[in-house]
Amino acid sequence: MMLRSLQKNKRRRKLKKVKEGDGHRLKEYRIWNIFSHSLFHIEIISGTDGEKTNYAIKSSYFVEEPRVDLYREGRHVAFSKLPAVLPTDRGVIEVKTSSTGISGIHYFTDHDDAFSVFPDKRSIRGFRLWLHKQFPKISGLIGLIAIITLLTSLTLGLTQVMESLSDIPWISQNIGTFNSPIDLSVWTNFAIGIAAALAGTERALMMKNHWLIDIENINAGEG
């Protein structure tokens, strides 16, 4: 109960960052838009007569200040910096982020019931979700490979970090030195970094982020 109260207070604070939209129309998502932005949808029952209202959440890539735009029935009604909480009929839409981008979007009713917000079917996330639903075994295998790749990359990265730390004079004199049992070339490290980035992206597409993903990004930044 206390945790829910804290979460609600946190959402209320984020709502203060929301700015009013300019009313422009949302353009239909095209295949080439996978390189410019992601798009999510949810239909919300907005009245006692069961009438449904469509909300869309757009997140652009390669922008100076990451933000999300909210559309109600195709009209731009609000926008906010990420992470964000956006107001809707009878609730809010919460957009969470991680180092790989959006890590989760949920609609919370006024009674704190949670519902998933789904990616546009023509987006990369939409295709990944379709693959998961149509071929769950293949999807599970892809996910498993991604997790194994992240674990392997983390293990190799930690050994190299430990070796670098042991070169610090105070540590080498008082604790000792550590020589990594695995000696990797620059190109091998580069390939591992690419594989880890792809694995992290795959998990992000499913919005199933893990602490490993953030650690991998930290390691990549230090390299």
Write a structural description.
The chain has 223 residues and is α+β, with helices and mostly antiparallel strands. It folds into 2 domains: 2-119, no CATH class; 135-222, no CATH class. The chain is built from 6 helices and 10 strands, in the order H-E-E-E-E-E-E-E-E-E-E-H-H-H-H-H. The protein has a 6-stranded antiparallel β-sheet with strand order 1-5-4-3-2-10. Helix 3 packs across helix 5 (186-205), helix 3 (136-166) packs across helix 6 (211-222) and helix 5 packs antiparallel against helix 6. It starts with a helix and ends with a helix. Mean pLDDT is 80; it is low at 210-223.
Quick summary:
The chain has a six-stranded antiparallel beta sheet. The chain is elongated and about 70 Å long.
Order of helices and strands: HEEEEEEEEEEHHHHH
* Overall helicity: 40-55%
Low-confidence stretches: 210-223
Shape: elongated
**Overall strand count:** 10
Radius of gyration: 21 Å
Give me the secondary-structure topology:
Layout: H1 2-15, E1 19-20, E2 37-45, E3 52-60, E4 67-72, E5 75-81, E6 84-88, E7 91-98, E8 101-109, E9 114-116, E10 118-119, H2 124-134, H3 136-166, H4 169-174, H5 186-205, H6 211-222
Antiparallel strand pairs: 1-5, 2-3, 2-10, 3-4, 4-5, 6-7, 7-8, 8-9
Helix pairs in contact: 2-3, 3-5, 3-6, 5-6
Features:
223 residues; alpha+beta; 2 domains; six-stranded antiparallel β-sheet; four-stranded antiparallel β-sheet; 6 helices; 10 strands; 42% helix; disordered C terminus
